[in-house]
Write a structure and sequence with these properties.
Elements lengths: L1 E9 L3 H5 L1 E7 L13 E6 L7 E15 L2 E20 L3 E2 L4 E27 L2 E14 L12 E12 L2 E10 L2 E2 L8 E2 L2 E13 L2 E8 L5 E2 L13 E2 L1 E8 L2
Parallel strand pairs: 3-7
Antiparallel strand pairs: 1-4, 2-3, 4-5, 5-7, 6-7, 7-8, 8-9, 9-10, 10-13, 11-12, 13-14, 14-17, 15-16
């Protein structure tokens, strides 16, 4: 059994403290009746007084072995995030052709997360091993805005590694990831939950040579896992397959 307490910080980048970035242009923003539609440009402005983000992490874990073939790891954690970066809209100004809306970066958010992680290994046979993992994460936002991305609440995975013959390996990895959302230049999209499967077959015709065939993300043509915060279009992870030749010496 073990426990630990740690502290970590993220210092603001130079752009976050002194940069100005055009983040969007709204050609026809909502306006009162009989009032002309004037384009609105939004700018994210750095803040020289932006402080470092901080987290205090608490963790306790327990590991046990039921037998020579099965083990269990159980971990509980609590994280206290402070001074997280948020945004604060400023006062619009008119330039003669369009309005400009400055958006300042401020330390306006705090987040608390807690959860558990469970990992178990079962060596069912000399040539067959199972790995089962599960994690649960609860996120509690306590800041003034809700622009902080939220991680998936639940994740689960099952891996099997088989070597039915001395020179043959067969592996599979099945995993599930819960829904989450993120904030970026293109709004606040929700990333759907997904289930996927990877397979691998390897053959060693010689002790120094291995030929393998791998299939990834086989249960769907494409799925979304992550969205970059700034200036990048969302890109899904495609189904794929590749072969590999390894020579050891």
């Amino acid at each position: 059994m073990g426990a630990g307490v740690s502290r970590s910080v993220r210092t603001p980048s130079r752009a976050e403290q002194g940069g100005t970035v055009l983040t969007g242009i709204i050609p026809n923003p909502p306006s009162p009746p009989f009032f002309p539609n004037i384009p609105l440009a939004t700018f994210t402005q750095g803040n020289p007084n932006l402080r470092s983000e901080e987290v205090i992490a608490y963790e306790v874990g327990y590991r046990t072995t039921f037998s020579k073939t099965m083990s269990l790891d159980l971990t509980g954690f609590y994280n206290d995030y402070r001074d997280l970066r948020g945004v604060f809209p400023g006062t619009p100004s008119f330039t003669g052709t369009n309005f400009e809306l400055p958006i300042a970066l401020v330390n306006s958010n705090s987040v608390k997360t807690y959860g558990i992680e469970v990992a178990t290994v079962w060596q069912m046979l000399d040539w067959w091993r199972w790995d089962l993992n599960y994690s649960w994460l609860h996120t509690q936002l306590t800041g003034n805005d809700r622009t902080t991305p939220v991680s998936p609440e639940q994740r689960a995975s099952l891996r099997g590694a088989l070597s039915p013959w001395k020179n043959i390996d067969m592996d599979f990895w099945f995993r599930y990831v819960d829904a989450n959302f993120t904030i970026g230049e293109f709004g606040a999209p929700r990333i759907k939950p997904y289930v996927t499967l990877d397979l691998r077959l390897a053959w060693r015709p010689h002790k120094n040579l291995e030929l393998s065939l791998v299939g990834q993300n086989l249960l769907a043509q494409k799925h979304l896992e992550y969205i970059q915060e700034n200036q990048t279009l969302p890109t899904g992870i495609d189904r794929g397959m590749y072969g590999k030749v390894s020579w050891g010496f």
